[in-house]
Amino acid sequence: MTAFETSCQPHVIAEGEAYPRSIWIASSQAPRNDGKKAAFTLAEVLITLGIIGVVAAMTLPMLIAKYQEKVLVTAAKKGYSVAVNTVTRWNAANDIVGDSYNFFASGGASNDWSRNTVVLKELAKYLHIVQVCDKSSNLKNCGGKYTVKQYKKLNNGQGGTTEQNYMNNFRIVLADGSFIAPRSEVTDDGTCKHTYWSNTKGPDGFFIPDTSGNSPTGFQGQYYTSNNCGFIHIDTNGLKGPNQVGKDNFIIGFRKEGKPWSDRNDYGNLDYVLKYDKLIETEDYTPQESGAFE
Question: Which pLDDT value is given to residue 224?
Fold first, then answer.
């Protein structure tokens, strides 16, 4: 008999002989052949689903917020490109290089508000438009009036909140649903330099009354000089929310020469968006005409 045959012979346990430990362990741990497969219990399934739900509840809002910001950032970049390129195209069509004065002066250099409607129509010539509403009385054809909140709750100097509702004067509706509107500030001398008065606010955000009798508004303040030939206001998604400066509403400034600018938070700070590929921090609030800061 070979060694292999010897090793394969059954071991017969004599009466009174101890059961070998190795055989006992093997037999006790062998799977039962009862036709049933191992499965999770209901409790285990519920615990796993609960963990998944908790993780989803913690991460999903953040993922949604990041996606929504990405959509708004992309739209902001597109709006900036459309506005700047439109002025560039107008200049090229009129044999003008590197000067925004003539575009904003196309409606005249006087302070007559109607000059903006002329500039509006000039702007529309180089855009894919759906509708042009050149005055507030026909805004119903462009979706009607609406409120645009500032990037955060700001005192308007008299206890109410400050909003940015320039689009309620006139606007162009573009094919993608966005709004755009120009604001001319050119001067007769062709320099775009002009002086304006700005009221001074106290620590509480309210205008400080003037007792000298020298203020044109009745509040303390001072004169400032501006070199802007005009501005272009954009709403990247029209009447859709959030309708707030710094999210879907922005203002781009154009000086006589040089690169367009938008580095103020109350203008939406497109310079920041273009540089960092994200929006400025904003604050949600409820617009109030008065009493917001009492």
Answer: 94
Spatial distance between the Cα atoms of 131 and 143, rounded to a whole number of angstroms = 10
CA 43 to chain centre: 44
Hey, what are 55's tokens? 């993780």
Q: What is the pLDDT of residues 15-42, one digit of tens each?
A: 555 555 544 444 445 455 555 666 788 8
Neighbouring residues of 29: CB distance < 8 A, sequence distance ≥ 6: none
Q: What percent of the chain has pLDDT over 90?
A: 64
- Residue 203: both structure tokens together: 């620590």
**Would you say 126 and 257 are in contact if contact means Cβ atoms under 8 Å apart?**
no
Q: Where are the domains of the chain?
A: 72-190+228-276, 193-226
How far is CA 10 from each of CA 6, 13, 26, rounded to the nearest angstrom? Answer: 9, 10, 15
| CA–CA separation, 90 and 5 (whole Å) | 101
